[in-house]
Amino acid sequence: MIITLNCSATQNRDDIHNQFNDAFGFPSFYGRNMDALIDCLSDADDPTAGMCTNSVDRGTTITIVLDGYSNLNQVRPDLINEITGCIAFVNWRRVEANEPALFCIAYDSD
After folding, report:
1. Which of the 8 DSSP states describes residue 31?
2. Does pLDDT of 13 surpass 80?
3. How many CB atoms lie within 10 A of CB 100?
4. Contact 6, 19 (CB under 8 A)
5. CA triple 27-80-58, angle to 5 deg
6. How many domains does the chain have?
7. Residue 76: CB partners within 8 Å, gap ≥ 6?
8. What is the band of 85 on the pLDDT scale with cuts at 50, 70, 90?
9. Separation CA 85–CA 83 (nearest Å)
10. 5: closest CA among 60, 62, 59, 43?
11. The model scores a pTM over 0.85
12. Strands 103-108 and 2-6
């Protein structure tokens, strides 16, 4: 699965949460903060968890493309750090549990 986030249209945390929510289909109680993002993404390969309506099969890698990365990194590097930090934490949880990483990140600077 490939998820593309439009970083050129991202100006704040709400934009990030909207894009992730649109891409994965988080539940109505999604807290729209980075801890909630980590919790939802952690179950992106477990449809029985009910955290993502757009989930993948166990063992599938999800690629997140940060389209327009350089634009956002110039104006809001903190947001890039938060996105990558959340994804890295989800992967770390997996590795600690002797499971493969779930996500990879691709940067597109268009």
Report:
1. -
2. yes
3. 12
4. yes
5. 45
6. 1
7. 10, 11, 12
8. very high
9. 5
10. 62
11. yes
12. unpaired
With a cut of 90, say whether residue 69 has pLDDT above it.
no
- The β-bridge partners of 2 are 63
**CA–CA dist 12, 21 (Å, integer):** 15
The CA-atom distances, in angstroms, between 59 and each of 31, 46, 94, 95, 102 are 27, 10, 11, 13, 7
From first CA to last CA, the distance across the chain in angstroms is 21
CB 44 within 8 A of CB 102: yes
Listed residue (108, 59, 105, 58) closest to 86, CA to CA: 105
CATH of the domain at 24: 3.30.370.10
Tokens read off for 71 = 């634009």
Print the domain residue range for 10. 2-108
* SS3 state at 108: strand
